[in-house]
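#lab-general

N.A. 3:47 PM
ok so I finally got the sequence cleaned up, no stray characters, all 277 residues accounted for. can someone with queue access submit it? mine expired

B.Y. 3:52 PM
send it over

N.A. 3:53 PM
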Amino acid sequence: MLTIGCHLSSSKGYLAMGKEALKIDANTFQFFTRNPRGGNAKPLDLEDVSSFLDYARENGINRILAHAPYTLNPCSGDEKLRDFARRTMEDDLQRLEHTPGNYYNFHPGSHVKQEVEQGIAYIADALNQVLKPEQKTIVLLETMAGKGSEVGRNFEELREILDRVEQPGLMGVCLDTCHVWDGGYDIVEHLDEVVGEFDRVIGLGRLKAIHLNDSKNPLGAHKDRHAKIGEGYIGKDALIRIVNHPALKGLPFYLETPNELDGYKAEIALLRENYAG
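B.Y. 4:20 PM
back already:
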């Protein structure tokens, strides 16, 4: 079965997101843990969480993906910004223990005014502080498009971070199709080779999720502008090949295309219709 969902607003709580997911024929979803531009998270409604967990079990919703806010920069040259990122991630992970067995995804950050190796060291240090052996949430590094001083612009940089983490069993990778395309990985003409390179550098066992997006930019543009399925340079056919690729088809897919719910519903229907099963 294809596990697919989209990004939903968390403002009304977990149960509301679960019901919205079902309305658009999704069986998973992604949400921000707090305002994507930063700020404090609102208090957890534990009754809502409990109701959602029952609803998810009854309706086959699984592997939801919590996304950290974009403002986090665990590899900043500013110690205060690194500390803010660490404290936010720690708080998010504690809250996510109420919905165990799911994923927490974050952008590695930008190594502004310092070398990439220093940025990688800072990211690993933050992870080593926040990861707890007993936690039930898997933390995912996201592949990035390579804008400016972004860390994670290639598989090798992600591997360097993973190699420094002291709790490797709690880590994985979320591959964003728009990002890797914009980063120079040709998933249209050479999907098998890109999958093989990921396996060689990082290992497919560490690939836990996929952000399924088209791109408004040509290959290698390093710009990160998402497009609706079939309306970008990657194209509908290539994205359908991705959800059906033998090494990828068992993973959960999360749409981050510029859509409202009706648009997500249409994209989910398209991908389900073209899923080989």
